[in-house]
Design a protein that fits this description.
74% of the residues lie in helices and 0% in strands. By secondary structure, the chain is mostly helical. It starts with a helix and ends in a 6-residue tail after the last helix.
Length: 348
């Protein structure tokens, strides 16, 4: 596995980011176009399972966070501070910019937005119902993972026990019991996916990754089979689907990390992967705006809905790239410079 060790950047993980973000965009577009206030019919039913991009993101997040911080010294206050700042810098400023826009849109539309709705949205705290930005629920799970990972950075044994207990026992509880919404959030099966990502990171660091192609193909089969079941096979328990998609995502990401021959840059996917967070943040309100425009235009120019679907997805991707280059990157650069002035730190 010397080839793997020599690769400081896993380019193929950008493919995962890019594809996962597009999955979610297509999912939200498919279910929105099928609403009675829009076109009232399915366009591409296969994207009814597109929310599985979240499972890919969570497994990938577990891997990336572990790999980026596995060398941090246990109990190092500066390492903990750096972790907190980097996570804050990565998530909050771009989110706040989008939330300012969605907050203005909500008030303009006369929506009922409480003070707690705004506080919880801007601080990424748990809520029962998303009011300002529909996709923010995933960031709330992400923040919970970061909080438990902080314990791991402070004390490896206690942190690892907490992570395993939270991921495994909590997930089993979430599957078999019907809790109030807050416990359902705290004990979600989603959290096990962060653990599997960390496990991949641990194996990767140890250079103990074999059978990359068979495991990748097995993961792809599980993921695709579950996708087909969701799209065309009828309903299934959401918690079990999370675990099945997570199993497939784990196999896919493990396989990609264990295949050094696939680790090569591919500019389009690299760019789309880098812009995946921007696309994820802006696509939900953007879809609403674009569909309203399309409804007006379609009344005069009735193009096939499939064509509108593809056009909207492309427009969202372009908007995501523009937001990444002209909003997200400058904000990251500014916060990075502030960090360096206060206390220089090695790059992640």
């Amino acid at each position: 596995m010397d080839q793997v060790k020599s690769r400081n950047q896993l380019y193929q993980l950008n493919w995962v980011r890019a594809v996962a973000a597009l999955m979610v965009v297509c999912y939200h577009l498919e279910i929105t176009m099928a609403l009675s206030k829009y076109f009232d019919r399915a366009v591409f039913p296969i994207f009814n399972a597109g929310s599985a991009g979240v499972e890919l993101f969570f497994v990938l997040s577990g891997f990336v966070i572990y790999y980026a911080h596995h060398r941090d010294r246990q109990g190092d206050v500066e390492a903990v501070k750096t972790f907190v700042f980097k996570r804050f810098r990565r998530l909050y400023p771009p989110l706040w910019i989008v939330l300012i826009a969605t907050t203005a849109m909500a008030f303009a539309a006369g929506a009922e937005v409480s003070a707690w709705d705004m506080i919880a949205a801007y601080l990424i705290l748990p809520v029962e119902k998303e009011v300002l930005l529909g996709v923010e629920w995933t960031l709330r799970h992400e923040m919970l993972f970061y909080a438990t990972f902080l314990v791991y950075l402070w004390n490896r044994k206690i942190g690892l026990a907490l992570l395993i207990g939270w991921g495994v026992i909590g997930s089993l509880t979430g599957v078999f019991l019907d809790e109030p919404w807050l416990l359902k959030f705290l004990l979600s099966p989603y959290h096990l996916l962060f653990m599997t990502g960390m496990g991949i990171g641990w194996l990767f660091v140890r250079q103990d990754m074999t059978q990359g192609l068979p495991i990748f193909l097995a993961g792809l089969v599980v993921f695709a089979g579950t996708w087909w079941q969701v799209s065309y096979g009828g309903g299934a328990d959401p918690d079990y689907l999370i675990l099945l998609f997570g199993l497939g995502a784990t196999g896919i990401i493990y396989g990609l990390c264990a295949l050094p021959s696939w680790n090569r840059p591919f500019k389009p996917m690299d760019v789309m992967g880098a812009a995946s967070y921007s696309l994820y943040l802006i696509h939900y309100p953007l879809l609403s705006l674009l569909l309203k425009i399309v409804m007006v235009v379609h009344a005069h120019v009735p193009l096939p809905l499939e064509l509108w679907f593809v056009g909207i997805v492309i427009a969202c991707q372009v908007a995501g790239l523009l937001f990444h280059y002209y909003v997200e990157k400058p904000v990251l650069g500014l916060t990075g410079r502030i960090m360096q002035k206060r206390q220089p730190q090695p790059a992640e």
